[in-house]
Amino acid sequence: MLFDNSRFTGSWRFMIYPEAGTTPGHSLGTLCTDGSVITSPPAVEEFPPHPTGVVHVSTGHGAWAPAGDGEAVLTFMAQASGGDGSFVGIGTVDARLELALDGDSFQGTYEFAMADIEGTVFATEQGTVRGTRITVNALVTAVR
Known about the structure:
Strand order of the largest sheet: 1-2-3-6-7-8-9-10
Largest sheet: 8 strands, antiparallel, barrel
CATH class: Mainly Beta
Radius of gyration: 16 Å
Shape: globular
Structural class: mainly beta
Order of helices and strands: EEEEEEEEEE
Number of helices: 0
CATH architecture: Beta Barrel
Distance between the termini: 41 Å
Low-confidence stretches: none
Number of strands: 10
């Protein structure tokens, strides 16, 4: 399965807006031509269900696929741990994205679920997401 012709392939900056009205978040992600997704959320995130109120988050790994003209769906997972390194859970994000006409931005919706080691979900969130493509910037000074 190769998505060479998909306009979603490439690297993106994600802005996440939870419906609960909590602080918006951000992440970086790459949608690869083989259908893989790699994301890098902030290393430490607010997470009220944890006793310290924060968790440390790993790189996310997952998959994506085109879902019609100018649309894509994706799922990725990341591990969360407490400040002492203890396992908190595996977070799963499912999203549906719609590419803007400029091809360099998108908007969509997401659902998040945090599950314990047995797979029991103990926290959920949903909201909207916006993305902008990461592009090459011109060098300010010449490289010698």
